[in-house]
């Protein structure tokens, strides 16, 4: 069953925010290509790689 009953939406939002922070920024991920990074870092690395690739394409044109 349910472990916690919330008294307000704000209380529920606090727990959700805490969970999402832990899930995306604190726990390492074992998925393929993650190399022990947290999901947020993989996201940021992807943005940097996409920008670098776009610059390379522009320079070649």
Automatic annotation (TrEMBL):
Top-level lineage group: Bacteria
Supply the name of the protein.
IS481 family transposase
Q: What taxonomic ancestry is recorded?
A: Bacteria, Pseudomonadati, Thermodesulfobacteriota, Desulfovibrionia, Desulfovibrionales
